[in-house]
Design brief:
Elements lengths: L3 E8 L7 H14 L2 E9 L8 H7 L8 E4 L10
Parallel strand pairs: 1-2, 1-3
Length: about 80
C-alpha cells in the first residue's frame, strides 16, 4: 500500500514564495512513490503560536495520512 502524505510549507512573510518548498515536497513524494494527498501552506512567522496551518495539521490523524513531509524542520517552528 502506498504511503499517504500531507506536505507542510511555510514562509514568514507575504513577499516570500512557497513554490520552492512545495516543489521539493512533491519531488520527494514522487521519488519515493508516496501519495501526496494535500499540501498545507501558510505565510506567517514560525514564532507565532496560533497558526491556522499548524492547527489544521495537528487535527489530522492516521485516517487522513501516514506521515507529514516538510522541506526543512524550521518550517514547523522557530521556537527554541
Amino acid at each position: 500500500m502506498e504511503k499517504r502524505v500531507i506536505g507542510y510549507a511555510r514562509v514568514s512573510t507575504e513577499k516570500q514564495d512557497l513554490e520552492r518548498q512545495k516543489n521539493l515536497i512533491k519531488e520527494y513524494c514522487t521519488d519515493r512513490g508516496y501519495e501526496l494527498t494535500k499540501i498545507i501552506s501558510e505565510k506567517v512567522s514560525g514564532i507565532k503560536k496560533n497558526r491556522q496551518s499548524i492547527s489544521e495539521l495537528l487535527s489530522m490523524d492516521s485516517s487522513v495520512a501516514d506521515m507529514v513531509v516538510v522541506s526543512e524542520l524550521s518550517r514547523i517552528s522557530r521556537q527554541k
